[in-house]
Every structure is written in structure tokens, then in C-alpha cells.
Amino acid sequence: MTLTYQAPSFVTAFFDRLMKEYETLLVPGSCFDIENSLRIGYAFETAHLRDGMNQLGKFLAKLEQEAR
Q1: Which residue has the higher pLDDT, 5 or 33?
Q2: Residue 4, pLDDT above cutoff 70
């Protein structure tokens, strides 16, 4: 699955922090020559994908709280 975004300056810090704090990996689309995008791998068991998406949701909620 490829998702796109409009603010490329945040990508490295966002992905690094997600991995460090939530042990969840997203891959910048630039690794696949698809700029301004990110990759979500789902070639694992459904439970593994679900766990990763839950971790991503927690991380996004934390960022939203920090922005307030």
C-alpha cells in the first residue's frame, strides 16, 4: 500500500521516531523511487499488520496531543 503526503521535510524524523518509540517501521517511498509517499508492508499475518496499524494510531494520537 502506498500513501502520499505533501510535507517531505518531516519524513525522516517521523519514521525514526515511530521506530524508536513504537518499534513500527514505515518505509519512505523514495526507497522505491516514489517521492512524497510511504510504504506499509502487509505481507505478514493479519494480526501483525493490525498490531502495526494500532501502534501507528497510538503514535499519531501522541503527536496530536503534543501539538496542542
Answers
A1: 33
A2: no
pLDDT of 11:
79
Rg (CA), the chain: 12
Phi and psi, residue 29, nearest 5°: -60, -25
CA neighbor of 41 nearest in space, from 21, 51, 16? 51
Coil/strand/helix, residue 45: coil
Predicted structure pTM score = 0.77
Please work out, in degrees rounded to the nearest 5, the angle formed at the alpha carbon of residue 9 by the alpha carbons of 23 and 25: 15
Q: Give the confidence band of 39 by pLDDT, cuts at 50, 70, 90.
A: confident
Contact 18, 24 (CB under 8 A): yes
Strand residues in the chain grouped as ranges (E): 2-4, 27-28, 37-39
Number of DSSP helices (H) and strands (E) in the chain, helices first: 2, 3
